[in-house]
Write a structure and sequence with these properties.
The chain is of the alpha/beta class and 279 residues long. It is built from nine helices and twelve strands. Strand 11 and strand 12 form a beta hairpin. The termini are far apart. Bound molecules: adenosine-5'-triphosphate.
């Protein structure tokens, strides 16, 4: 088996004395999708922050390309080829798609006082890169704010691929999307995998995870509640674990209504209500 692009071993993170993560291990391989599943407060955001270089881990080891390391900043993570696409994408809504595609890394042409943005190159490259991922946008000149949430996620994925990411971390890319748009985004997540990237897909939706995932790590209140490869788990089992099988069963019992008492029956023809007293 090849060396994982990213490997977490027994990683923990505390905020003061609040345990956000403890004993978390996972592997990200080139050309594979590792899904991290968990409910609210499970520690998913904390895990992203560690891999994206926003927070250093307190315990355990983080390896990149087999080398033990600690990331100093998001820039450091990016320099090592780890790109993170957050749910609330940092885009400038009124700027065209191509401008957002190159935001912060704009190519220029000319020299000295004649130096200016190479708009044609940016426009052409954006169009070509989106097409390469199979994204056929009507017009790369339209403001990115006019794209649907799903399309914006796709542009962000294509951007990470273009700028040479080796690892792509996606923070709940389908959380705010409907069924159809989620499908489109998952298609591009798979396209990034096929382009040879190692993908980390954070989600609380086992159905989405199972459609594209190769490995699954379940988090619950900061600890690992399961770790599987695709061939060692079924969708039903993953869904059950995610829903907290036994907790759900307990809740079902609690919510079950006590059976209603049978309605009082009276013989046919009998007057309703109490009989009048005999005089
Ligand atoms: P959600 O899906 O609701 O965002 P999550 O799975 O991303 O949840 P985290 O945000 O990683 O979970 O939080 C894990 C735990 O760590 C929670 O109990 C949370 O309250 C705590 N936590 C997260 N960030 C901080 C912080 N900066 N300071 C203190 N506690 C924190």
């Amino acid at each position: 088996m090849s060396t994982p692009l990213v490997q977490l071993d027994d990683v923990s993170k505390y905020y003061g004395n609040i345990r956000a993560l403890e004993g978390v291990s996972l592997e990200v391989h080139a050309g594979e999708i590792t899904c991290v599943l968990g409910d609210n407060g499970a520690g998913k955001s904390t895990l992203i922050k560690i891999v994206a270089g926003l927070h250093a881990h307190d315990g355990g080891t983080l390896r990149i390309d087999g080398e033990e390391t600690s990331l100093a900043s998001p820039r450091d993570a990016l320099d090592r080829g780890i790109a993170t696409v957050y749910q609330d994408l940092a885009v400038v809504p009124l700027m065209p798609v191509w401008r957002n595609f190159f935001l912060g890394s704009e190519p220029t042409k000319g020299a000295g006082p004649f130096k200016r943005l190479d708009v044609d190159l940016m426009r052409e490259t954006t169009r070509a890169e989106l097409l390469r991922m199979g994204i056929d946008l009507r017009d790369v000149d339209q403001p990115i704010g006019t794209l649907s949430g799903g399309e914006r996620q796709c542009v962000a994925i294509a951007r990470a691929v273009h700028f040479g990411a080796k690892v792509l971390v996606l923070d709940e890319p389908t959380a705010a999307l409907g069924v159809k748009q989620s499908g489109v985004v998952l298609k591009y997540v798979a396209a990034a995998r096929d382009a040879g990237l190692g993908v980390v897909l954070i989600t609380h939706n086992p159905h989405h995870a199972y459609l594209v995932g190769d490995r699954f790590v379940l988090l619950k209140r900061g600890v690992m509640a399961g770790s599987h490869t695709k061939d060692s788990v079924t969708l039903d089992e993953l869904t059950r674990q995610m829903a907290g099988g036994s907790e759900l069963e307990g809740l079902r019992h609690e919510l079950e209504r006590a059976p209603a008492p049978p309605p009082a029956t009276s013989p046919p023809g009998a007057p309703a209500g109490p009989r009048p007293e005999a005089p």
